[in-house]
Amino acid sequence: MRFAQFMSSTAGRALRIVAGVALLAAGITILVAGGSIALGVVLLAVGALFTVVGALNVCLLAPIFGASFDGRKVAGS
Cα 41 to chain center, whole Å? Predict the structure, then answer.
């Protein structure tokens, strides 16, 4: 539950957004440099996922810890 509470905090959301943007940048760099297309696309997809869930305050792993997907509900508990 502590993990879900951290991820629903402002710091946790910022961490997910920053990690997502970094993965997006890495994916774009790999694709532009002519590297592995599969790796570039995977990094773009994961980066987009992290960025969106951080921006929407949703934690996909929270149910594993018995918490809600909705970060506002987790933060309030």
Answer: 16
Count of the separate structural domains present in the chain:
1
Distances (CA, A) of 39 to 2, 18, 35, 43, 44: 32, 19, 8, 6, 9
- Residue corresponding to tokens 């149910």: 63
Instruction: Give the predicted TM-score (pTM) of the model.
Output: 0.78
Q: Is residue 16 part of a domain?
A: yes
Which segments of the chain have a pLDDT < 70? 1, 67-77
pLDDT in tens, 36-52: 999 999 999 999 999 99
Write the DSSP string, 2-28.
HHHHHHHSHHHHHHHHHHHHHHHHHHH
Residue numbers of the domain that contains 37? 2-72
